[in-house]
Amino acid sequence: MIASVVLFTLGHAAVKWVPHIPFYQLVFLRAAITAIICIVYLKRQKISIKGNNLKLLFVRGLAGTCALLAYFYSLQHMPLASAVTLQYLSPILTIIVAYFLLNEKVTKFQSYCFALAFIGVLMVKGFDDRITLFELSVSLFSVVASAFAYNFVRMLRKTDHEMIVVLYFPLVTLPIVTPFALNDWVTPSLRDWMYILVIGVFTQIAQYLMTISYHRQKAADIAIYNYLGIIIAVAIGYYFFNEGFSLLSVAGMILIMSSLVLSGKKKKPALQ
Q: Which residues contact 30 (CB under 8 A, 6 or more apart)?
């Protein structure tokens, strides 16, 4: 899960380096790369690309598509640290959704750790006054869609292979975004393709690792590790996009890390 968070953050940060390419074209390209990698892997492993729980696979793909479109829009139109900060509210909603969909209980200690992490997230960046109400709404929509997508992944763990679950994301995404991407196509330069490959390959590996994590462990036990992404995003925003942060932000990062350490000490054995 930690490796997944690092790769996701680096891949999504690359979106900031290609602001001239429409966000839905980037989603299209990412989905295409994901589909190619998944199909090649499944063919080599001699695993049928036909899923078992088709209805849930489709719903998971749709939720993931909505989340990614909204998130890529946020990344292009908001400061990186702000967009990622808001996105990392999703672990809290993931646990809430898991309680209703999967009946997964949360211990009091975990609740305290999540509360500390949530406060830390707000301290790191908070609600940037450069963010419009529409941008904030889009970002929060991405958070909600992500929470449902993560839980659908958990629900699919008993019926479908991890890579099948990943594959159905682009299978749902491509038919939705292709018309928009082709209509406003911007031809990427060689440098653009480098960032696009980072977006596609890094997030593909991250998606697979995340899927394994949610297949094998309760959402309440692993979702908190998502908060590592905010620290990485703040560092990238500071060094590459001149996004400064205050002493309050530093205190927030320390609070986040403290909650991660405390939560890790209360780990339960992985589900078999």
A: 68, 196, 199, 200, 203
What pLDDT is attached to residue 268? 44
- CB 192, CB 32: distance < 8 Å: no
Contact status, residue 135 vs residue 74, Cβ threshold 8 Å? yes
Residue pointed to by tokens 């400061």: 79
The ranges assigned to domains in the chain are 2-264
The encoded tokens of residue 54 equal 């088709």
First to last CA, the chain: 17
Tell me 15's DSSP state. Answer: G
The enclosing H or E element of 254 equals helix 247-264
In which region does residue 46 sit, left (phi positive, over 0), alpha (psi from -120 to 50) or beta (all else)?
left
In angstroms, the Cα distances linking 172 to 12, 27, 32, 67, 207 are 20, 12, 11, 13, 15
**Distances in Å between the alpha carbon of 263 and those of 122, 209, 213, 223?**
19, 20, 16, 11
Under DSSP, the state recorded for 225 is G
What's residue 269's pLDDT? 38
**Which whole-number Å values give the CA distances from 210 to 110, 151, 158, 172, 216, in the listed order?**
20, 12, 16, 19, 10
pTM for the model stands at 0.82
Please answer whether residues 234 and 56 qualify as being in contact, where contact means their C-beta atoms are separated by less than 8 angstroms. no
Query: Could you tell me which residues come within 8 angstroms of residue 267 by beta carbon, excluding any fewer than 6 positions away?
Result: 221
Q: Which amino acid is at 263?
A: S
Q: How confident is the model at residue 108 (pLDDT cuts 50, 70, 90)?
A: confident
Angle at 198 between CA 123 and CA 216, to 5 degrees: 70
Give the tokens for residue 60: 């998971």
